[in-house]
Amino acid sequence: MRARIAxxxxxxxxxxxxxxxxxxxxxxxxxxxxxxxxxxxxxDEIEAELEAYRALYQADEHPGRIAELRRIALDAMHALERxxxxxxxxxxxxxxxxxxxxxxxxxxESSKDVELFLLDRNIAFDTAETRRFSGDRAHAVSVFKLDWxxxxxxxxxFDPRDERIALKSSQAGRVMDRAGxxxxxxMLAKTx
Length: 192
Prior knowledge:
- By secondary structure, the protein is α+β, with helices and mostly antiparallel strands.
- It contains seven helices and six strands.
- It has a six-stranded mixed beta sheet.
């Protein structure tokens, strides 16, 4: 049942563009009639199934879509360079679906600097707040959501001191992988 849930969750993520592993797991378990208390697969199990699914059913369009999202991310990173941007999330991992948001981490002196940057360029945005973790310490993070070259961009704004620490999306979660401008440029150079 665990393997079936992982495969179904991967299909849901690939076809519906869901990037939230927990949501995909719950939907898959519900579709398969599994009890919520049954052992759900780990995210890495779903990622492996997602890669297999995309290799089989989306081999033609998926690599091009990831490259396009990474090009848009790199463009935004160059524009936001003074805020020390890093690409993270599904676009970096190569697991992003067709409706994925591009996740960038920024480390400005103040979140107001990012807000003023966007306002000065007449870029419409929404704001929210979320939490990120390092060790057992929670960090309140401002999030700006906006459109950039036709893609959804999510800018998570951290304290500049947090740039050197390993950040996680949950207290027990994995460390979030991230790549700077040079690394994203190298990734794109390999696909061109």
